[in-house]
Amino acid sequence: MKRERLNESDRRVPADYNVYEPDIYEKTAVFAVEAIFCLIVGYLFYGTWITVLAAPAVFMPALKLYSENMIRKRRRELLISFRDFISRISSSFAGGRQMTESIEEAASDIFQGADKKNIMALEAGNMLNLIRSGNMTDLEALTDFARRADMED
Q: Quick one: how far is CA 113 from the chain centroid?
């Protein structure tokens, strides 16, 4: 049975999309995979199981590669979702809506068609919370998102 790990940190938007910090489950999985890899390589090439002791030395580079891969994956997902978000906002503009109304309409469309972990759904919810609470204007919320996402679009 697959266990869903949707905790509070999964619902927050990242402060920077160029940084990824794996949780303890991911770190454990990376260590286990690279320990098994060291074990197999050691047995195949050297005929001994002792090479598994090299696993801790390989852990940090393996974790860095994993984090870089997750950053690329998250940015790719964000780019695809962002293009959809922009097309929904532009269709709202074509209908004569204001910026805040367009963001609300696009966010509601994304919430209806997205899963709980969709990055743009989380971002749209964050933008709406900032706008509704009065902490930021609609332009400031979009600028904040653009700064954190560091995307050309």
A: 18
C-alpha to C-alpha distance for 103 and 97, rounded to whole angstroms: 10
Pair of tokens at residue 88: 């929904």
Alpha carbons 153 and 145: distance in angstroms, whole number: 11
The pLDDT tens digits for 40-95 are 888 888 888 787 787 788 888 889 999 999 999 988 888 888 888 888 888 888 88
- Angstrom distance (rounded) from CA 121 to CA 85: 9
What pTM, to 2 d.p., does this model score?
0.71
Smallest CA-to-CA distance from 65 within 35, 20, 28 is with: 20
Judge contact between 153 and 83, C-beta under 8 A.
yes
